[in-house]
Amino acid sequence: MANILHVDSSPRSERSRSRRLAREFMDAWLNSHPDDAVTYRDLRLTPVPHITEEWIAADFTPPEALTGDMAELLAFSDELVNEFLAADHCVFSVPMHNFGMPSNFKAYIDQVVRVGHTFLLENGQFSGLAEGKKVLLITTRGVEYGPGSPFEGWDCLEPGLRYAFRFMGVKDFQFIQATGLDLGDDAERRGLNTAQSRLRELVSSW
């Protein structure tokens, strides 16, 4: 039995293709692993606040010195961090917005990357605290970003996600990308079919 954290970040609901892919994967996964426990978070319904100067001050205050107001500022972040650290597998669906991640998922990352919680800083060296975790990132893109495309090199989504989770100690990544989804019906169908095929394969090998 494993603990699964599933987070959807698209501001769309039923029209979201990243949600659809993640839902299909989770349905297939739970059909094969019925004893696994799932924690689900929808960032559309529970928006993540952006960090503030006061939040930063509280985050870098030793736990024993936190005031009640500081602890309250960090309470939601603590909840997100605990969910992340408790998970064996994490499934994140993240559409590309303007070449990068949606602002709500960037806010999520900012609330989860926490000194003393998901990484350590000792003698000027950083080390992650989330080793041993498997992370699946399901991303959707309106156009193509591969070699030879007009947008080659413009993909700021995968590098940003990869480095954020690697910084927290994650080494086991899977990226499933559905691309070209806004280039017409045929391209959308190809992009979704390719992603769905890879996700089906992952159910038995992840």
TrEMBL record:
Ordered alphabetically, the record's keywords are: Flavoprotein, FMN, NAD, Oxidoreductase
Do you know which SUPFAM superfamilies this protein is assigned to?
Flavoproteins
Give the residues the record marks as binding FMN: S10, S16, R17, S18
InterPro entries, per database record:
Flavodoxin_fold, Flavoprotein-like_sf, FMN-dep_NADH:Q_OxRdtase_AzoR1, NADH:quinone_OxRdtase_FMN_depd
- Enzyme Commission number(s) from the entry: 1.6.5.-, 1.7.1.17
Q: How is the cofactor bound?
A: Binds 1 FMN per subunit.
What cofactor(s) does the depicted protein rely on? FMN
Can you tell me which family this protein belongs to?
Belongs to the azoreductase type 1 family.
What is the protein's name according to its record? FMN dependent NADH:quinone oxidoreductase
Q: Which organism is it from?
A: Cyanobium gracile UHCC 0139
The encoding gene = azoR
